[in-house]
Amino acid sequence: MLKFSANISTMFVEFEYLERYAAAAKAGFKMIECQFPYDFAANVHQEHLQAHQLELLLLNSPPGDFQKGERGLAALPGRENEFKESIQQALEYACVLNCDKLHVMAGVSKNEFPLEKQAEVYLENIKYAAEEAARQNRTILIEPVNTFDVPGYFLNTPKQAMAFLETIDLPNVRLQFDVYHCQKMVGHLEYHIRKYFHAIDHLQISALPNRNEPDQGEINFPYIFSLLEQLGYQGWVGCEYTPRGSTLEGLGWLNRVARHRGSGIINN
Fold it and tell me: Quick check: is 218 catalytic?
């Protein structure tokens, strides 16, 4: 049975951020994820999680200066100390919020540094994050992000991510597989899901071309859901999409999945 979590950074945006907890719970979600919780103290988030009987599955490491286009620090030479501080901050939040998974963002490549140097820094930084996370029994995730939406993003294909995973070779460093990013970069979704299934710890969905609800566009989501069930996927499917209108009104696709596949927004 597939299990779906709501990303409250992209869903329920018709509500103020802290009101999205109540909205997600009202919609029936038990598990949520978010991108950057750092605008509010960790205990504020925890109060809302407890009040609405929600659990937090995943958060992202701080991205650096988001307004200036930064999307992570892990592959940025010269920012190692700032990266380590960002990991400590993320793990402090993860500890308070009982969040098991931390997506460590690679960042946008800097042309003044050779790619080999950026790869070297990335490896060392991910190892550092993994070792620190292991102290709390938490998992570090790395995610390929397409370079159409984020030009120059350092980590952009499942093959590249898998090469780093094999080099790092630590049990708590795993793959976050977003079907939207994979389809946009390399396509062949079934091939890539099957090939890297053993490394996938979390999977996210949204439609192409506009990253909306997974009920239209070029990806055949019923087929993808059937594939995941066939492969015995036990993780959560993260709904990281931008609703076309009201989030609640757009959840018809999930109700249809629940009726037809016996899946749903459950926590077990």
Answer: no
